[in-house]
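re the bet — no i am not wrong, look at it urself. input seq straight from the record:
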Amino acid sequence: MLRQIAKSITVGAIAAVFLFMVPIFSAGAQPTDIRIVAPYAGFVTSVYERESANGDIRLKDTDLMLGLYAQWIRPGKFQANAFLYHAPDVNYASLWGLHTNVDFYFALGEIENLVIGGGVQFLMIDIDAGDNIVSVSPMGTEVNLQDFTLRTSVVAPYLRTGRQVPFGDARTNVVIFPWVGGEVNFVGGDVSFGLPFPPPGTTIDESIDDIDLYALAGINVRANLWRFLQIDAKYSAAFDPYTFLPRASIMTNVFFTRNLGVSYRFSAMESSAGSTVYHIFGVAGAF
């Protein structure tokens, strides 16, 4: 049941990305709209952690990462963005990630700049490590697992609300956005490996099927300076009484012309499956 829910949410998230990408290039956008598209390349450090009765596993590796970011802003109305990334070979695995977000801006009486939004974060890890995985037992004994394979996905839809606080003028515009929300993590998958000790040929097959509910709190700071420098910094955390998962990111765009510039993205994120940190660089186009 959980895996069916996760698949449905994933399909919906990918469909939402495509529905979002189409209007970015359409002629129906208003003249005040801001649309940014940026392909990226760089490096990601992925940490995968797993605890079980058969031993704890911790993998850490750094390798190539590719990404594609798109954002559509209609000032005073909404902003939507999507970031798709892929690391083809990190921790003996193929890693895919997708972050989507939509925020709507509105006023409630005399209170302006209120925000209601949400999105989905998706992470998929497909590990085929052969005999290269070392498991650590509760007694501290290290064991090389055989024919280790793992397929897992984390699907995390969330909702949030807050209020933007703008500063500055048209040339130096800064917006601070504190917010709170909630997130549900659907974690599903399966793992299989052989044990090197008697009885010979013993194979462990386990399924992963978890649901976690977290509260969210965060703050975003967005700055547009002198019409050529854009900075978007974010910090948030998902938490419950037993877990604290911090997330931090920054995106910097420097435009040399009205439509073309360079971009840098950094992100550090912890999840129930481990952590992901990346530094990537790209070319940003504004339309």
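see?? DSSP finds one helix and 14 strands in the chain. told u. also Confidence is low (pLDDT under 50) at residues 17-27. so pay up
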